[in-house]
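Lab meeting prep.
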Amino acid sequence: MVGWGVVGQSLAKIFLSRKRELAKKYGFRPRIVAIVDKKGAAINQKGLDLELMLSLKKEKGTVSASGQYGRPDMSALDVIESVEAEAVVEVSPTNIEDGEPGLSYIKTAFRTGKHVVTTNKGPLALALPALTELADHNKVYLRFSGTVGAGTPVLEFAKNCLQGDRLVSVKGILNGTTNYILSEMDEKHITFDEALTAAQKLGFAEADPTMDVDGYDAAAKLVIMANWIMDRKVTIKDVNIKGIREVSAQNIQDAAKKGCTIKLIGVIGETLKVEPTQISKHDPLAVDGALNAVTFVSESAGEQTIIGLGAGGVETASAVLRDLLDIKQNIANKMMT
């Protein structure tokens, strides 16, 4: 595991609390042999004690403080390169500029024959077509459900539930922070700055909210969806992006008079775009708070909308678990053929 923050620790807690169920229902007995955080690593080829790792992080600030298994001298790349494992769970912070260090982590994992489950949007937004090819070349799996919709199965819904149909377009609210800000502006008749401050106080928005309010987070998710669901082979450079900073209280009020609201909508059509859009308050996408909502338009099934929380440690960790189970199932299927 590369990254031992909220998502990594939430996944470990799921492994601990559902150990018996995962083994009985899915034949899944995960053994975490290495954990890397900002200050080093902990390694035990027989499997680390997850309760000990959680308490070390809480009390000492790093898993590398383990007397027996701590390796404060080791980098994430060293660990991925040298430790024997079947899969790497990569949950390091997103960097939309150049995708690093996550991009190097993923490439190194592939090169050493390890499957990858990631929640990191940066590498995928910048290089998903190339990473998919690299995974295929190395005969490993790359999964990333948690990058779009957190625990809400947006990618799986389109890939599995609409299988056989032809997707015409996709549109949706892909960022909970901006949706919360716009909802607050609408409901409380406040300015963008006031709503942003409220979102930051509640932890919905970062101290530097650029990724969210300027539309980059939604654009990254749009790219992942376009590649994975519609085979578009695009990167974030192919998306026209406009954030919500210029949406005024007056814009919101004018929309409300017409029975409409303003939302930051991402669209995969002939082109890819993210921009503040006026929609009817009766539109399925007109969800409030920090919710995400995505409408898939397909030739036969028509419009289908999936709604759910788009962020959260436990929610995102549940997506990582889904991906690990998917990889396990794929490996089992290959062995049977």
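Slide two material, second protein:
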Amino acid sequence: MLNSRLRNCFHIDALCKLGLFLKRSALAVGLIVWATQAQAEYRVNVGDVLEVAVAGVPELQHRASVQIDGTICLPLVGTLPVVGVPLPQLQTQIGAAMASKVFRQRTSGGEKVIVIGADEVTVTVAEYRPIYANGDVSKPGEYPYRPAATVRQLVAVAGGYDIMRIKMSNPYLEAADLRSDSGTLWTEFAKQQARIWRIKNELGDRSQIDPVAMKDVPIAFSAISAIVNSETEYLKTKQSDYQREKAFLQRGIREGDDQVNVLSAQQKTEEAGYQSDLEELQKVNDLFSKGSLVSPRVTDARRAVLLSATRKLQTAAELMDLKKKQDLLRRQLEKLDDQRRLDLLRELQDASVSFNEIRGKLQSVGEKLQYTAMVRSQLVAGAGNKPQIIIIRKGEKGQERIVADEDAELQPGDTVEVTLQYQDGPEKPLQKLSSSSIP
């Protein structure tokens, strides 16, 4: 009785093992059939690398990339169009093209002539065109295709999902850096504001630079006071230097005018002396012609006229030179005001441009701070849902967008877009620049 039960158990165990073996065999056969069908249905496209081999002729084994024009180039055949052709049909075409071709194979015994048969040619895909990962993955980019690859496997190769894809390795550190940038920009904002007020004051606007007017700037009041005091001292220094330069030119003009008056009086005296000497010469010449004077007296009179004429010309030249210098000083005095105003207007323009640039940067930093705050709140709350996966595949009718899941199988050339969806957190209002802080 016991032996009978044992035999029944053995039979049952054997039947179970046999059933498991048959199931595994059927599964293996099914996978082989599926792989064969997938290979047979696959159509060649640009980017694939085909391997063509001839049985018994290793020299003719050749790999060829499908070019952008959809062709490949093979020995003994030349250029063939291959895009969109299934692999079995392509093998038949290449076999027919190479059929009856003569290949001379060199061996140790000499040269051997081989006639290629169509059924001796095999065509396989050595490398499929790559697939692409894009979106919320750690390493988006191009990856080689592997048969039966799934979205889950591609995401794993791309480093997994990554909610910090937008150049934000750590929202807490990023927020700290942004707050530091914000403080620096607000300080520059206050400096440019005080600078604009100082320039306008130099241009004639008598408004006072008051630290209280910048109460809306979110930096320490002591820092604001230091900025305002610095601009105030700079304003005093520039105005003092301007006044000294202006006083120097005005003093030079006054002194020059005095010299002009002196030289003008001297010129009149020189002119009177010249006329007197000239009349004396005329009298001496008259007396000399009558024999009343000797020639040395005439010579002395001529020398006196020549000397008077020389002094007259020298005084005239000095007067002209002095007047020219006076004109230059007056032009410098006029130019001092004009050039100062032009420089101040140019400086005001540059300061206004810098002020607006800083305002734009502050707005950008404020938006980034808002975004990092939202990301931090999502990280703390664990607000992640299943990813949204879109496969972009080129079909017969053009590009197709296929909604898929992580277990979807990929095809060569697919682009997988991954989007992680989050719960919407409460939005915080951006910090605005008040109108009172704008000069």
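Talking points for slide two:
The longest helix spans residues 295-381.
The first strand starts at residue 49 and ends at 54.
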